[in-house]
Design goal:
Number of strands: 26
CATH topology of the largest domain: N-(1-d-carboxylethyl)-l-norvaline Dehydrogenase, domain 2
Strand order of the largest sheet: 4-3-2-5-6-7-8-9
CATH class of the largest domain: Mainly Alpha
Radius of gyration: 28 Å
Helix content: 40-55%
Number of helices: 32
Structural class: alpha/beta
Distance between the termini: 38 Å
Largest sheet: 8 strands, mixed
CATH architecture of the largest domain: Orthogonal Bundle
Length: 821
């Protein structure tokens, strides 16, 4: 399994082969960990603990950095794609090991936010740094140019800011902040590396306080807190109003503060206040509420200290966290209640934030939610519009920063467009609210910040207030989306669950677009009909990609459809549905054209089965893949057991010289895959998906989510150009048989006797063993793929008739959690 790097052509021969990180705190150590996720060897250094004797042993001097390494190995969410990545990190300290920097191509400074400390360290680094080695700072607050002011010309030329967001593995944003002295070639090299190898969305920020994302984000958070006080709202209400309702993370404002760290929030706000007056920020008066300062003094800093704006107090009967919330007036904790806001209830079934925003913003002002949204959103629109070109050259950089750094569904200018720029501005004008000069410029030329335009590669134009004109949105080569291609080329075929799109170069894409991409009859039908040999829908196409633009590839089969059939005891219809699903996965596997599945996010159950049957897989690095059917009292019924059984045999035959795949080797491979299915194991990365057996060594991994479509298309095109020949259905699979089945069932019995699993868990696990072993046949009996599919279907249908399975499915649909009954 290798990383895909669809790197633009370049004449430069410089490459980043080794990285150093100076500072092993939470941020520095996690940056180092993510570098190893890209396969980079890393030097990680930190200070010697104060008071340590000069002749102390290495362990004592490296106490801080070694503690950081232990923290990385235990961190949740995981910092490493695979635990073994830790071997790529060489640790040391600033007193003894700066010589390790000599062969590093990129050095990242991540020490305390103190100008004197940073400058003192850089003076030491200069004695060991190789000439032309790039050195950057991860500071979130100090002016980049000030840190190296007066230092040597070579250092200043190779110096700029690279601001990662925490946690670096999961947060896509990297703000790149050059100084007037920075070498553009260095910045371009780091940008390309962070894009391709680290999967970052790179935005270009100006060297202004808090750069882009924290400038806008801090304003929005502090303004939400101000309005809470002015309007008499509660913490829970603010979190509901500033969460998923407007396309922001469901954490809202205060829950996000707990996750980030209230001390970090206070630091960023304080830093802004210290510099706001000098840059004439019109909202320099906004600051954190006084009670937050008291919380910082008390060390109530959020999740990392166990309490902040919220505090956990055990779990409820359904396993959900019980949270208390702080009372800002008394600083005492009380029961947290779910707020009831009429406007939010009315729009909860509206799919997109773009559709919800105008409804919420222009609702009856007597409604509590609308009364909050009008000042909150319009002041955000004005504040963002006034920041161009102060913090960035254009509105695109600001929107991308907020989407990648704060996980907003839309950037502030995209939100303004959704609200209706002209209508919103006229209401603001009538109310006497200030109108940004850049908004007046926009209204004189057009009515929206963005325009669709199929004539440009990105399919989109943006309004540039500096030139007073519309310009093309420029995407890095290789970054693409299904949505943009659909706008340019249209749709070949579609139904409510999926569409076929022409990607160009003889490659078609099948995009899933049901709710959560749950696999229902419509998706199954479209994929099967599209991939059959004589399909007219893909006539002229030589390869097919299955992927999409959504957050998750697929959460698996449509359980609601299945449950309704089960409750009505429509067993013939259940049987037909399973057969149809199996026909779909076989159509993927035996399609005469290569089918590449490009999974991302959650790829569960049937989504994993689709991937297992593809000619190749092109996953995104952040992949949560698993055959999870046992969690709802079922087994994989779409060929998942069949494919994992075949992989068990292939793993064993690759070990045994006689090629028979029998004995201990086969059982060990079979046992591993049995545990993966029976325990509903889910990967936390593509690397772990490979270790679980869902991916193959020949599969490539894409680090940057925005490049997944292009990488998958290239992989499909490569297979077609190589003269792809589909596999022939096998009839010679040596079944592990009754001996292996008996051993697996014994293991299940032992787990049940020890009360690790319930009666129904045991029943489900025994069916998994039955399907994987090929039933009660003599070991080595050659069986066909269809035979294994029939066993799966038999097991699946039997479990559908179980009351406990139906209870599990109903519980999962209601709560999103598994039921252990």
């Amino acid at each position: 399994m290798t990383l895909s790097t669809t790197e633009p052509a370049t004449t430069s021969i410089r490459q980043i082969r080794k990285v150093a990180v100076l500072g092993a705190g939470t941020m520095g150590s996690r940056i180092a960990a993510h570098m190893t996720n890209a396969g980079m060897p890393v030097v990680l250094l930190d200070i010697v603990p104060p008071g340590t004797a000069a002749d102390a042993d290495k362990a004592a001097k490296n106490k801080f950095v070694l503690a950081a390494m232990e923290g990385l190995k235990k961190s949740k969410p995981a910092a490493f794609y695979a635990p073994d990545n830790a071997r790529l990190i060489t640790v040391g300290n600033f007193d003894d090991d700066l010589a390790l920097l000599a062969d590093c191509d990129w050095i990242i400074e991540v020490v305390a936010e103190d100008l004197a400390i940073k400058r003192a360290l850089l003076e030491k680094v200069e004695k060991h740094r190789r000439a032309n080695a790039i050195i950057t700072s991860n500071t979130s607050g100090l002016p980049i140019h000030k840190i190296v002011e007066g230092m040597g010309e070579d250092l200043r030329r190779h110096w700029f800011g690279t601001h990662f967001f925490n946690p670096p593995r999961y947060m896509r944003l990297l703000e790149l902040i050059p100084t007037p002295d920075s070498d553009p070639a260095d910045a371009a090299l780091v940008e390309r590396f962070c894009d391709l190898r680290l999967g970052k969305t790179v935005v270009h920020a100006h060297d202004t306080p808090n750069f882009i994302a924290n400038r806008i984000g801090t304003f929005s958070m502090t303004n939400a807190m101000r309005l809470m006080q002015v309007q008499g709202l509660t913490i829970e209400e603010i979190d509901a109003l500033t969460g998923s309702a407007i396309g922001w993370p469901k954490t809202g404002t205060f829950r996000l503060g707990d996750m980030v760290g209230i001390d970090v929030l206070a630091h960023v706000a304080k830093n802004f206040r210290a510099q706001a007056a000098a840059i004439h920020d019109e909202r320099a008066d906004i600051e954190l509420l006084p009670f937050i300062g008291t919380m910082v003094e008390k060390k109530w800093l959020g999740d990392k200290t166990g309490q902040g704006f919220y505090k956990k107090q055990g779990k409820d009967a359904e396993g959900r966290d019980i949270r208390l919330v702080i009372d800002p007036a008394t600083l005492e904790y009380k029961s947290s209640t779910r707020p009831k806001l009429a406007a939010l209830e009315m729009t909860k079934n509206v799919e997109s934030a773009a559709a919800r925003i105008p409804q919420l913003l222009h609702a009856d002002s007597k409604d509590k939610a609308a009364a909050f949204y009008w000042p909150f959103l319009t002041e955000l629109f004005t504040y963002a519009a006034n920041r161009v070109p102060e913090i960035a050259d254009n509105i695109v950089e600001i929107d991308e920063a907020m989407k990648a750094g704060y996980n907003w569904e839309l950037g502030p200018f995209e939100m303004f467009d959704a609200a209706g720029v002209r209508a919103t501005t006229e209401k603001m004008r009538a109310a006497g609210a200030p109108i940004a000069a850049n908004v007046e410029k926009l209204l004189a030329v057009g009515g929206t910040w963005y325009r669709d335009d199929a004539s440009v590669p990105s399919g989109r134009l943006y309004f540039d207030p500096v030139s007073n004109s519309y310009k093309p949105v420029v995407l890095p080569d290789g970054v693409a989306s299904v949505a943009t291609i659909k706008k340019a080329k249209g749709v070949v075929r579609k139904n409510p669950g999926a569409s076929v799109i022409d990607l160009g170069d003889g490659v078609a894409a099948i995009e899933l677009h049901s709710k959560m991409n749950a696999l229902g009859d419509d998706i199954v039908s479209l994929i099967t009909q599209t991939l059959k040999p004589a399909s007219e829908q893909v006539a002229g196409f030589e390869a097919v990609v299955i992927t999409g633009d959504s957050t998750n590839f697929s959460v698996g089969a449509n359980l609601m459809q299945l449950l309704l059939l089960m409750q009505d005891q429509e067993w013939d219809d259940v049987d037909l549905a399973v057969r149809a699903f199996q026909n779909m996965t076989q159509a993927i596997k035996f399609c005469p054209r290569p089918v590449v599945v490009a999974p991302y996010g959650m790829c569960l159950g049937g989504g994993t089965e689709m991937s297992l049957h593809a000619a190749a897989r092109q996953p995104h690095a952040e992949l949560y893949m698993g055959l999870v059917e046992t969690g709802v009292g079922l087994i994989p019924g779409g060929g998942g057991c069949k494919e994992m059984a075949i992989r068990s045999v292939e793993a064993a035959t690759s070990i045994r010289p006689d090629g028979r795949g029998e004995g201990v080797e086969l059982f060990e491979a079979l046992k591993k895959n049995f545990e993966t299915i029976a325990m509903a194991k889910v990967s936390t990365s593509a690397a772990e998906a490979s270790a679980l057996g869902f991916l193959k060594d020949s599969d490539n991994v894409t680090m940057n989510r925005g490049r997944l479509l292009t990488d998958a298309k290239l992989r499909a095109r490569q297979l077609a150009d190589a003269g792809y020949t589909p596999p022939v259905p096998r009839s010679d699979i040596p079944a592990p048989g009754e001996n292996a089945l008996a051993t697996l069932k014994l293991a299940v019995w032992t787990m049940h006797e020890a009360q690790f699993i319930s009666d129904h868990d045991a029943k489900v696990a025994n069916w998994v063993a039955y399907a994987l072993c090929g039933g009660k046949v003599t070991p080595g009996t050659p069986v066909s793929e269809q035979y294994l599919l029939d066993l799966e279907r038999e097991a699946f249908l039997s479990l559908c008739g179980e009351k406990k399975t139906q209870e599990r499915i109903a519980f999962t649909l209601k709560t999103g959690k598994p039921l252990r009954n």
